[in-house]
Amino acid sequence: MPEGCSNRLIVLGGRRTLRTFQNSDWLAVVAGRHAESLEFARTRFACQFETSENPLPALRRLSRSHPGLLFLLDYETDGLKGLAKAKAGRLVHHQIRY
Predict the structure, then answer these.
(1) Is the CB of residue 81 less than 8 Å from the CB of residue 98?
(2) Res 3 pLDDT > 90
(3) What share of the chain is helix, strand, coil (3-state, %, to 5)?
(4) Using CA atoms in the order 78, 8, 70, 42, what is the torsion angle rounded to 10 degrees?
(5) Could you give the 3-state DSSP secondary structure of residue 68?
(6) d(CA 9, CA 94)
(7) What is the pLDDT of residue 53?
């Protein structure tokens, strides 16, 4: 995957579990930068950030660390658009080139 990946992450789960995730150092786990929060709801958190590497291995690690949450990641880089869903270390991933 080329350098410079734009990511949009949505995290769904219970209120306490989601709050624990939000208070963790999740951005460092994904090696993200320039994070901007988009939504803070009781059971939903959304943000966008950039990474310089493929975000999928980090997404899998995050989902293993927070098995009670569902992670949805929409990412885009030079000519590549992807969508991934992760829960408890299991990852389903689709991508297209354009």
Answers:
(1) yes
(2) no
(3) 25, 50, 30
(4) 180
(5) coil
(6) 15
(7) 87
pLDDT digits (tens, 9 = 90+) for 72-90: 999 999 899 999 999 999 9
Cβ proximity of 49 and 13 under 8 Å: no
pLDDT at 2: 47
R_g (Cα) of the chain, nearest Å = 13
pLDDT digits (tens, 9 = 90+) for 20-52: 999 999 999 999 999 999 998 999 999 999 999
> What order do you get walking across the sheet with 5-12 strand by strand?
33-40, 44-51, 5-12, 70-77, 80-87, 90-97
Let me know: does 61 contact 21? Beta carbons within 8 Å: no
CA atoms within 13 A on the CB side of 91: 17
